[in-house]
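re the bet — no i am not wrong, look at it urself. input seq straight from the record:
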Amino acid sequence: MNSKFSKLCTLAALLCVSTAGFAAECIAPANPGGGWDFTCRQIGKIMYDIGAVEKPIQVTNMAGAGGGLAFNHVVAERNDDADLIVAASSATSTRLAQNAYAGMTADQVRFVGAIGADPGVIVVAKNSPFQTLGDLLNAIKSKPGSVTFAGGSATGGFDHLKPLMLLQRVGFTDIAKVKYISLDGGADAITQTIGGFTQAMTGDMSEVVGFLKAGEIRVLAVLTEERIPGFESIPTAKEQGFDVVAVNWRGLYIPRGVSDATFDMWAQRLQNVADSAEWKEAMVANGLAPFTKVGGDFQSYIDGVVAEVRKLSQDLGVIQ
């Protein structure tokens, strides 16, 4: 066992095994279970199953600081490790934009790609007067205090930012006037909206499917590039004239110090997973929508998201 890996085991109190016999290591910045763990285990397994890597990929769980412990470890200890990948999601880019990782920045790693996502949604109760996303946004423009959103993230979190991104597209910039209630998860948020305590809910598709099937809500828009398979009747925000894509993507980053050839190698491996029948089955089984951005295209997307989230967070007073 090399000294760096041994040091990691001691500091993070992990149950560790040697990486010998593995093609690479995937760090899941959380305990077993949940999105980051799923990303490492499912993508790693499929890479091996389809022959994208010659040996299995070891998964190491490294919980702490909402992903910050793993990020710091990669930057400080593994900056040139070509055999390391790390699970990431929209929470990763949001926290980096808001300086939640104690001075760490998004450009200290390389974002390889995302190949699936939980789509963002804007939802109203079935009896809401708002029939379209435009109706809702125009009402806020006319009278900001007339609409309160409920969401499962903290103030300044990703659920809060979704409607603010949309409002910016219609020229509304006084975002501090937009009312938002932070609740303990999407289920509580949708319940508040169904009960009439809030006028709209901002969250993810996976949180509202049951309520949608029960006929208790209307989804005014999904925040994806294209309509979601299985829910083709729900329009995207983009097709309604509001150019916002806001999804909880599932993807990977790698150390900054690796070569361009290594970056391209991992990007191709991830693309191979995205193209596989095995991944398509995994997306259906886990409620993910297609969202494939790999290589330089994804890095550019991340750069744009981080810049927008930082500006919105500053306008809200979440960060300086």
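see?? The longest helix spans residues 296-316. told u. also Residues 206 and 286 are 9 Å apart (CA to CA). so pay up
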